[in-house]
Amino acid sequence: NAGVTQTPKFRVLKTGQSMTLLCAQDMNHEYMYWYRQDPGMGLRLIHYSVGEGTTAKGEVPDGYNVSRLKKQNFLLGLESAAPSQTSVYFCATFTGSSYEQYFGPGTRLTVT
Amino acid sequence: GQQLNQSPQSMFIQEGEDVSMNCTSSSIFNTWLWYKQDPGEGPVLLIALYKAGELTSNGRLTAQFGITRKDSFLNISASIPSDVGIYFCAGPTGNQFYFGTGTSLTVIP
Question: Cα(A52)–Cα(A104) distance, rounded to whole angstroms?
């Protein structure tokens, strides 16, 4: 039972490059979230999904796209990376009943 | 979006000391959550509070839901080295969760 996993763990991109971050969960949770964490700013919600085939914008969605084609996977895409997207990205899942979110280990992204 | 401010931003304490931190919001929340993030890992839920005035404990941790519903407090008693990490408050609104800016705790043995 792996819980929430994120791929890759680290990545360095050049400005303008694209990439996709993968979040996978084996807990059968309906809700999935992508956050970014920057020093002194806590976690900020980028996009989230309330079920397979659905996505919604969070607090800081610009420059990111997401897809939830399968219930267990939530993909975060950067079409044209910018240095301002240098951050640690966390995926989380949520059952929808109790308020406990389960977080993945994070992906550290550097854009040069 | 919602703004949750935590204080202090960082704390350096001796092992065995008690710790207090708080979280204030510009908006009312009906639920308050406290998370801990160990270095290099994702946050883990410590305590959930569901009612104004509620006081809830989890081992050496005690959290309170403020009466105004705009603040919450977390206390850690008799700190130990494994308490090191960043503590976040969070409040859910609908399907979204808003996180505080975090309090970084360092425990000196």
Answer: 19
Other C-beta atoms closer than 10 Å to the C-beta of B1 total 12
Convert the pLDDT of each residue in A42-73 to its tens digit: 899 999 999 999 999 999 999 999 999 999 99
* List of chain B residues with pLDDT < 50: none
Q: Do A58 and B98 touch (CB under 8 A)?
A: no
Q: Which of A41, A90, A105 is nearest residue B101 as measured by Cβ atoms?
A: A41
Nearby residues of B103 by Cβ (< 8 Å), 6 or more positions away? B6, B7, B8, B9, B10, B11, B21, B86, B87, B88
**What local confidence, expressed as pLDDT, does residue B3 receive?**
81
Q: Which residues of chain A does B45 touch, with a Cβ-Cβ cutoff of 8 Å? A: 99-101
Residue B35 has a CB neighbour count (10 Å cut-off) of 24
CB-based contact A34:A64 (threshold 8 Å): yes
Asked if A101 contacts A2 with a C-beta cutoff of 8 angstroms, the reply is no
Question: CB B43 to CB A90 under 8 A?
Answer: yes
Q: pLDDT tens digits, residue range B75-89?
A: 999 999 999 999 999
Q: Do A40 and B9 touch (CB under 8 A)?
A: yes
| B98 contact residues in A (CB cutoff 8 A) | 45, 59
Cβ contact, residue pair B42, A56, below 8 Å = no
CA angle B1, B3, B7 (to 5 degrees): 165
Which residue ranges of chain A lie beneath pLDDT 70?
1
* Contact (Cβ atoms closer than 8 angstroms) between residue A83 and residue A38: no
